[in-house]
Amino acid sequence: xxxxxxxxxxxxxxxxxxxxxxxxxxxxxxxxxxxxxxFALLGTNGAxxxxxxxLLEGLARPAGGRVRVxxxxxxxxxxxxxxxxxxMLQEGGFPSELTVAETARMWGGCVSxxxxxxxxxxxxxxxxxxxxxxxxxxxxxxxxxxxxxxLLGKPEVLFLDEPTTGLDxxxxxxxxxxxxxxxxxxxxxLLTTHYLEEAENLADRLAILHEGRIAAAGTPAExxxxxxxxxxxxxxxxxxxxxxxxxxxxxxxxxxxDGRVVRLRTHELQRTATRLLVWADTAGVELRRLxxxxxxxxxxxxxxxxxxxxxxxxxxxxx
Amino acid sequence: xxxxMTTPVGRMAALARAEVTLLGRSRGTLFAAMFVPLxxxxxxxxxxxxxxxxxxxxxxGTVVLPASIGFSLLYAVYATxxxxxxARREELVLKRLRTGELKDTEILxxxxxxxxxxxxxQSLVLAVGCAVLLxxxxxxxxxxxxxxLLLGVVLCASLGAVTASFTRTVESAQVTTLPVVFLSMIFxxxxxxxxxxxxxVASVCELLPLxxxxxxxxxxxxxxxxxxxxxxxxxxxxxxxxLGVLAVRRWFRxxxxx
Lengths: 319, 258
What we know:
- The structure holds 2 protein chains of 2 kinds.
- Chain A has helices spanning about 50-55, 80, 100-110, 115-125, 140-150, 170-185, 195-200, 220-225, 245-250, 270-285, 295-319, and strands at about 10-20, 25-35, 40, 65-70, 85-90, 155-160, 190-195, 205-210, 215-220, 230-235, 250-260, 260-265, 290-295.
- Chain A is of the alpha/beta class.
- Chain A folds into 2 domains: about 10-220, P-loop containing nucleotide triphosphate hydrolases (Rossmann fold), CATH 3.40.50; about 230-295, Alpha-Beta Plaits (2-Layer Sandwich).
- In chain A, the strands form 3 sheets. A 6-stranded mixed beta sheet of chain A has the order 5-6-7-3-8-9, sandwiched between helices.
- The longest helix of chain A has 22 residues, at about 295-319.
- Chain B is mainly α.
- Chain B contains 12 helices and no strands.
- Chain B has helices at about 10-25, 25-35, 35-50, 60-90, 95-100, 105-135, 140-165, 175, 180-185, 200-205, 210-220, 225-250.
- Chain B is elongated, with a radius of gyration of 19 Å.
- The interface between A and B is medium-sized, with 28 and 29 residues.
């Protein structure tokens, strides 16, 4: 690592994007990505991930706010940025009648300092498919071709919009390994995904987008830590919630009862679990269907979606 | 380490090379671009035989030759480019290219190069063919012929990009290109020389985009067009080119409608 360790390669301030019809896809988001960092934008479809990435790639001008990539405005100062970035769009972008090798040659001619095309194809395991037309590739192979072309110029900054959509489990792991190696070699990576596992595995930091806003951000551990852990069990016959030790005392934040099933949410998993198990042991009862689950990114993600749905419902009632 | 930077010429060459490959693989476009312009002159020849050309100071050759080059510009350049730009946009190729180092004008120019070269080569073949077969001879005012040809190429390329902006699919390009193709054929002095039309009709026809191109080409061969008379067509042609470029900047779509 050099002295630029903390340099912000990507800086986004109060970014907004409004489409022609007036739809506000990005509603004021702020984040930054340091050199050699993998940053994931996570969100459901329509959360604003692609709309955001396209602004970072310089494909469109923001309706408001500021984007800087390597210190430049990627839209207005395109020439200063483009030879240092690699882009993988969410979808295709290659003439279907060209072969893999012809496509790579076309791109190679348009990329400064390109590595040999065959080398890039080998990186993603497409070397043996060089003579095949793009239209005959599977969805996963097309994604890998796109990745190979994004890597051709050995970019400092890599934008990957859903890089593993359509890949099988093995292909996904290969891509993760490759992206991890690039990061270790100093490449800054911004990726979007709706696979939580992908963000959890790859990202140094992430932001969860919801309806054009950042709902949560930080390292995967930080985002997860803000979420409660969960304990679920079935109350033994003849017992009621009131028979448990006082919930406050157990560190329980919230509880839900669904028939005989009790769901506890806590930020102190060990304390809550210990009190519960000691109680069960002392009472000599068995807690059926016991499930103790630490907070996960998935919980965080679902929690955000749930909160948003709840808010939308409230709004409807009010109306 | 210093990185070898790409140049505009290098980038456009890479793009053009891919487009040549694609043109070779698209039979329909290839046929329309290569053969239609070479076949159409025969029909003009039949039509022209029935006109009183001598009275207008024209010959069969000086009618058929500019018309042939006009066809080439319309089919090999204009119609081909409408298909090319539309196909590349719909396959998201244009969007993908815009993420790279190519500038917008380089993308449009690089993709247009094979069609433009085809059009120019065809024009040359047609000119030589007509010169020999129809006894037209060499152009009397070659500078006007060259000017007309260059104007035609730039104009047809920009009109192609404008038309592609309003074309949803490659199939619908067969329809969206018809207005320009037919209006030009009938009213720009290709099938019917403006000289044999009533004056009032002719003066309206002079304002059409391809008319100045045909006028300059014909004048180039006959040598009847004085420098003063050439100003009008040149200005009209330039005006259309500027309009075309502005229209591309205003309306050209780089990605499909959502």
